[in-house]
C-alpha cells in the first residue's frame, strides 16, 4: 500500500509536504474510477488538483467561514474565474470603479463576449438599484475599496442582489477575513488576491475564492478547463504565510489607524480615507460589518500636485515605494501612476482618485518609526 502524499511517514508532518508531482500512479482501475467519480479523495493530474494546494484551500475556507475554497494563480485569475463561470452572453454585470484596476482590462474581454458591464462609483451604492436590469447576473464589489478605501454595505448589496436574482461577489483583499467575513453578510463568493495579506511576504502570487460546495464544483470546472491551478511551491509559501496571518493583520490595522490619526489634522494632507476614522464617510457601515479593526490600508492626497506627492514618497526612509499591499513592510504608491495604469487616462480620476493621491499599506513595523518617517517626509514638501 502506497503512502498518502500528505502523511509520507505514517504520521502527519508539521509542515504540509510540497507535492510537485504532475501526475500520479493508480493502484488499480477501481481506484481510478473512485477518484474520477468523486467517491474518494485522490489526485490524477496537477491541473485538476494538488494535495499541497488542497491543504491551503481548506485553511482559507476556514478563515472565511466557507464550505470550501478554490485557489488559483493570481487575484485576477480568481476574478476571471468568477466572471467566466457565472456570466453568459447577454448578461449584465454591475461593478464598482473602486476595484483593482486590472478588472477594467477583463471587462473589455467580457464586452467582446457580449456581456454588458456597468461601472458605478463605490461612494454612490444607491445607484445600483437604478442600474439593475432583468439580465443583471452579478454585482461585483470591493470594500474597503481599492484604492480609495470606500466602504460599501455588504448586507445591503446582498439583499439587492437577491431581490433581482443576481450573484454578489465581494473582493475581500483589503479587509481580509480577520476583519470581515462577507459570506456571513450574504455574499455568494468572496475573492482574495492571496498575494497580499494572506501570503504577506512579497514572495508569492495567488488568488482565492471562498464559497459553498456547489460553487466550488462550478469554479473547479473552470479552473481545470483553463489551467490556472496554483503550483505546489507557491501553495506552500501561502500556507506558511497563513500561520502568522492574524498576528500580522492585527498589527497592520493598529499601524494604519495610528498613521490615519496622525495624518488627519496635518495641513499638507487632504481627502484622507480610512474607515476606522469616525470622520470617514464609510465609518458607520464599516463599524457594522468589520471587526478587530479596520484593515491596513489608507489613502490620502499629498500637497497640491503630483510633484509634491512624489517628493513626499521620495523622502520616506522606512516606508517602501512599491506596489502591492498587505506585506510585512509598509508600502506606498501613487495609484494614478501604478495600479490604475490599466484604465484609460480620462477614467483614472473620474471617481475620486487625483494625480497626487497616494495609497499607503501599513506593515508590521514599530508604530513610532512609521510616524516619524511620515513626519520627516511631510516636512520636506
Please sum up the structure shown:
By secondary structure, the chain is of the alpha/beta class. Helix content is 35%, strand content 15%. It folds into 2 domains: 29-243, Aspartate Aminotransferase, domain 2 (3-Layer(aba) Sandwich); 245-378, Aspartate Aminotransferase, domain 1 (Alpha-Beta Complex).
Description:
A seven-stranded mixed β-sheet has the order 1-7-6-5-4-2-3, sandwiched between helices. The longest helix is centred in the middle third of the chain and has 19 residues, at 245-263. It has 381 residues and is an alpha/beta fold. The chain folds into two domains: 29-243, Aspartate Aminotransferase, domain 2; 245-378, Alpha-Beta Complex (Aspartate Aminotransferase, domain 1), CATH 3.90.1150.10. Helix 2 packs parallel to helix 9 (232-243), helix 3 (75-86) crosses helix 8 and helix 10 packs parallel to helix 13. The chain is built from 13 helices and twelve strands. The protein is globular and about 75 Å long.
Amino acid at each position: 500500500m502506497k503512502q498518502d502524499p500528505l502523511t509520507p511517514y505514517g504520521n502527519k508532518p508539521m509542515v504540509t509536504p510540497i507535492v510537485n508531482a504532475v501526475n500520479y500512479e493508480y493502484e488499480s482501475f477501481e481506484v481510478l474510477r473512485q477518484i474520477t467519480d468523486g467517491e474518494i479523495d485522490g489526485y490524477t493530474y496537477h491541473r485538476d488538483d494538488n494535495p499541497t494546494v488542497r491543504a491551503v484551500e481548506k485553511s482559507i475556507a476556514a478563515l472565511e467561514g466557507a464550505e470550501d475554497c478554490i485557489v488559483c494563480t493570481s487575484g485576477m485569475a480568481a476574478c476571471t474565474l468568477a466572471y467566466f463561470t457565472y456570466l453568459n452572453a447577454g448578461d449584465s454585470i454591475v461593478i464598482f470603479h473602486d476595484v483593482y484596476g486590472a478588472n477594467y482590462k477583463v471587462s473589455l474581454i467580457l464586452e467582446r463576449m457580449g456581456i454588458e458591464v456597468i461601472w458605478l462609483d463605490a461612494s454612490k451604492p444607491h445607484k445600483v438599484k437604478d442600474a439593475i436590469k432583468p439580465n443583471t447576473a452579478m454585482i461585483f464589489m470591493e470594500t474597503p475599496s481599492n484604492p480609495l478605501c470606500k466602504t460599501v454595505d455588504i448586507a445591503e448589496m446582498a439583499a439587492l442582489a437577491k431581490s433581482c436574482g443576481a450573484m454578489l461577489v465581494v473582493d475581500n483583499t483589503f479587509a481580509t477575513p480577520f476583519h470581515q467575513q462577507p459570506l456571513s453578510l450574504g455574499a455568494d463568493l468572496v475573492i482574495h488576491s492571496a498575494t497580499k495579506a494572506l501570503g504577506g511576504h512579497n514572495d508569492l502570487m495567488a488568488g482565492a475564492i471562498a464559497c459553498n460546495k456547489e460553487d466550488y464544483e462550478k469554479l473547479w470546472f473552470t479552473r481545470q478547463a483553463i489551467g490556472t491551478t496554483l503550483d505546489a511551491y507557491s501553495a506552500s509559501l501561502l500556507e506558511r504565510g497563513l500561520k502568522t496571518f492574524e498576528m500580522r493583520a492585527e498589527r497592520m490595522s493598529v499601524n494604519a489607524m495610528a498613521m490615519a490619526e496622525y495624518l488627519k489634522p496635518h495641513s499638507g494632507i487632504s481627502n484622507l480615507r480610512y474607515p476606522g476614522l469616525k470622520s470617514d464617510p464609510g465609518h458607520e457601515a464599516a463599524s457594522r460589518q468589520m471587526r478587530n479593526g479596520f484593515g491596513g490600508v489608507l489613502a490620502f492626497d499629498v500637497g497640491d500636485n503630483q510633484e509634491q506627492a512624489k517628493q513626499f514618497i521620495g523622502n520616506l526612509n522606512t516606508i517602501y515605494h512599491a506596489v502591492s499591499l498587505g506585506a510585512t513592510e509598509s508600502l506606498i504608491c501613487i495609484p494614478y501612476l501604478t495600479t490604475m495604469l490599466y484604465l484609460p487616462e480620462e477614467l483614472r480620476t473620474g471617481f475620486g482618485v487625483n494625480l497626487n493621491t497616494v495609497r499607503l499599506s501599513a506593515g508590521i513595523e514599530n508604530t513610532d518609526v512609521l510616524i516619524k518617517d511620515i513626519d520627516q517626509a511631510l516636512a520636506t514638501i
